[in-house]
Design goal:
It is built from seven helices and 15 strands. With 307 residues, it is of the alpha+beta class. Among the domains are: 113 residues, no CATH class; 93 residues, no CATH class. Strand 3 and strand 4 form a beta hairpin. The radius of gyration is 30 Å and the shape is extended. It binds zinc ion (3 copies). One zinc ion binds next to loops.
């Protein structure tokens, strides 16, 4: 009975758009045959069979959720959406993928292309257009503000902008810093500096102790946030390969560094040590009050006992 023949809606992975995955190669493949399709809300569990020089299986599982935007493009969390093809290239692409990027082989690309969510693509387009319009609006406002400031400056301080800009372009950064520091010595100079550098720009000193490395740091200063420890001397030993190649090995973090006698360019042999830097770890400080020594993944990766 023809009238009873209701066509099922086409299968899609909710939210899947072409931008969500990257083809790792330029090769193309015919659409693989779908052999499993479970969709529960946003969660999917799909499987295809692809015929290449052998029969490969392509799987896509989990859910695709936009976690943020960067440069007008949506960002996804690929810890929650997995795609894998059993072909050799699929395995390679999988290894190149990360939580931010999903690379796929030609079979997986073809499979995903066939289940893209057109509605999601449309609403993404609308959202993108709105974001572009908003940025353009902001840019115009900024240009107008700068133009207005410039003409006000000319009225109140004729030619001064050009004089200052000329000076800033001619003196070195170091010379300018010197002049600024010199100005801080007088009452008038300090008054001018307070205007240029209010506490919102240059906050008052704040000292916190890091629970991990025990250093004192200022959490407001970006360059102060680096938490790292040099390899402790008493845990480092020199190792040799023959009489010409040597390197240092840290027993605390198991890293190798200070490579000597190795070719500094060209290919490193697989069995050769790697230059892993001067620090047992390098991360961000954690205030001592918030630090959980027992559960710190950085410290857990270090060897307490010497051997
Ligand atoms: Zn493949
Ligand atoms: Zn620290
Ligand atoms: Zn170390």
């Amino acid at each position: 009975m023809l009238q009873n023949c209701v066509r099922a809606p086409p299968l899609v992975i909710p939210g899947l758009v072409h931008e969500a995955y990257l083809a790792g190669s330029r090769h193309t493949a015919v659409t693989p045959t779908l052999i499993k399709s479970e969709v529960d809300g946003d969660e999917v569990d799909l499987k295809w069979e692809a015929i290449g020089s052998s029969v490969y299986s392509v799987t896509a599982s989990g859910s695709l959720v936009i976690t943020g935007w960067a440069n007008g493009k949506p960002k996804y969390d690929y810890n929650r959406f997995h795609v894998l093809c059993s072909c050799p290239d699929g395995v390679r692409q999988h290894e190149s993928s990360s939580a931010e990027r999903l690379y796929v082989c030609k079979h997986a690309k073809s499979a995903l292309d066939s289940v893209c969510d057109r509605e999601a693509a449309k609403s993404l387009q609308v959202k993108k257009a709105a974001m572009i319009a908003k940025h353009e609006e902001e840019r115009k406002r900024r240009v107008a503000y700068l133009e207005e400031q410039r003409s006000e400056q000319e009225k109140i301080l004729p030619n001064e902008r050009a004089r200052i800009e000329y000076g800033l372009s001619k003196y070195s950064d170091g010379e300018i810093v010197k002049m600024v520091k010199e100005a801080a010595n007088s009452v008038e100079g300090l008054q001018a500096l307070v205007k240029i550098f209010p506490s919102t720009v240059m906050p008052a000193k704040k000292s916190i102790k890091c629970g991990r490395c025990k250093k004192i740091y200022d959490p407001q200063i970006k360059s102060d946030l680096i938490c790292r420890e040099e390899h402790p001397d008493d845990r480092v030993s020199t190792e040799w390969d023959g009489s010409k190649k040597s390197w240092m090995h840290c027993r605390r973090c198991d890293k190798t560094f200070g490579l000597n006698g190795f070719y500094s360019w060209g290919k490193r042999r697989r069995d050769e040590p790697e230059e892993e830097g001067d620090y047992c770890y390098e991360t961000t400080h954690v205030p001592v009050d918030e630090f959980d020594e027992e559960n710190d993944p950085i410290l857990a990766g270090l060897e307490d006992e010497d051997y």
